[in-house]
Amino acid sequence: MNLVMTIILVSTLLSTILAIISFWLPQMNPDYEKLSPYECGFDPLGSARLPFSLRFFLVAILFLLFDLEIALLLPLPWGDQLSFPMTTFSWASTILILLTLGLIYEWTQGGLEWAE
């Protein structure tokens, strides 16, 4: 057996063993105290299952979008060593322009305002 097959076999076996152990090991005994929301020792004042504001999700999605933009632009410095570095620069500029236009659109529509 070659090295790659050995690594795949060991990682698959280890993952399976760890998944089985994590499934059977914990003791699931839910009671009232575990199921009740924790509010610093006080009795719960209301339901802890209130829905989040839609604006929270919008800001979270925008954060993820701009976080992924960094991952897309990370290889940009190595693009200078390609045979056509202007192609890399034009694609990176296109991504940045599209994201900037999207941010400007969200800003003008009031999507980033917390209070209405």
From TrEMBL:
It is an enzyme of class 7 (translocase). Its EC number is 7.1.1.2. One of its GO terms (cellular component) is NADH dehydrogenase complex. One of its GO terms (molecular function) is NADH dehydrogenase (ubiquinone) activity. Pfam families: Oxidored_q4. It is found in: Mitochondrion membrane. The keyword Electron transport applies. It catalyses: a ubiquinone + NADH + 5 H(+)(in) = a ubiquinol + NAD(+) + 4 H(+)(out). Keywords: Electron transport, Membrane, Mitochondrion, NAD, Respiratory chain, Translocase, Transmembrane, Transmembrane helix, Transport, Ubiquinone. It comes from the Eukaryota. Core subunit of the mitochondrial membrane respiratory chain NADH dehydrogenase (Complex I) which catalyzes electron transfer from NADH through the respiratory chain, using ubiquinone as an electron acceptor. Essential for the catalytic activity of complex I. Belongs to the complex I subunit 3 family. This is NADH-ubiquinone oxidoreductase chain 3. It comes from Dermogenys pusilla (wrestling halfbeak). The lineage of its organism: Eukaryota, Metazoa, Chordata, Craniata, Vertebrata.
